[in-house]
Design goal:
Layout: E1 15-18, E2 23-26, E3 33-34, H1 43-50, H2 60-76, E4 82-86, H3 93-100, E5 104-108, E6 123-129, H4 138-147, E7 149-158, H5 165-169, E8 181-182, H6 185-195, E9 198-203, E10 206-210
Parallel strand pairs: 4-5, 4-6, 6-7
Antiparallel strand pairs: 1-2, 2-3, 3-8, 7-10, 9-10
Helix pairs in contact: 2-3
């Protein structure tokens, strides 16, 4: 059976790497490296892994980590913007940091803040920090997030990026069993192009994508 790419649905994804636990495929169209579905954890197993994370909004080190996305995003936002922290986890530290800067932030997490009304609003920005690598259906989830963003608004993403096959083989990031999708710069360029958005790499693992405003309608 062919393992289709979960981002672009392409059916050409030859082997990229294999370790003692899982196989990894790389899509020839969008360059996403992904784990075939048979290697994914159950929902209960996944939740148990997340509960092991210790993310505290008052931890200076964690705040410095998140500031690599928060600071450049805040520089681009109008005052009192409305946003969504997608995949906020049990301790929504990034949302707290953005609210300290005068912005209002809604929360959504399928495990810890599963309020679907948050996914039925429109926002000036959406953040997803250390989230996209966990998505079983990144095509649907990323498209949904993009649809929530107002014209001129921002999608802020933090995730480690694939460099090459040799680095991947020794990469700590693939040891987390909840990580099933691995993006590269090439992948983000492909995805931004599909959306007609602009893409900025503001750090090694931080991307800001802006939703372009539609051109004004011209009348004869």
């Amino acid at each position: 059976m062919t393992d289709h790419c979960p981002l672009c649905m392409g059916d050409r994804a030859p082997p990229f790497h294999e370790d003692a636990r899982r196989n990894y495929l790389r899509c020839e169209q969008c360059a996403l490296v992904f784990v075939p579905a048979r290697f994914r954890l159950s929902r209960d197993e996944e939740r148990a892994e997340y509960l092991r994370h210790e993310n505290d909004v008052d931890d200076p080190g964690y705040r410095r980590f998140l500031s690599r996305l928060a600071d450049p995003l805040v520089q681009r936002l109008p005052p009192a913007s409305q946003g969504l922290d997608f995949g906020c986890g049990p301790a929504p530290a990034l949302a707290a940091m953005l609210e300290e800067q005068g912005h209002k932030v809604a929360l959504y997490d399928s495990f810890f803040a599963p309020e679907m009304t948050a996914l039925q609003q429109r926002y000036d920005f959406v953040t997803a920090t250390e989230v996209v690598e966990h998505l079983h259906d990144p095509a649907t989830e990323l498209q949904r997030l993009w649809s929530l963003i107002n014209e001129g608004g921002w999608l802020g993403v933090m995730t480690k990026l694939v460099r090459d096959r040799d680095a991947f083989a020794h990469w700590h990031y693939i040891r987390d069993p909840t990580h099933v999708c691995f993006f590269s710069r090439e992948t983000w360029h492909w995805w931004a192009g599909q959306q007609g958005g602009t893409l900025e790499f503001v750090a090694d693992d931080v991307m800001l994508l802006q939703k372009r405003a539609a051109p004004p309608t011209s009348w004869p």
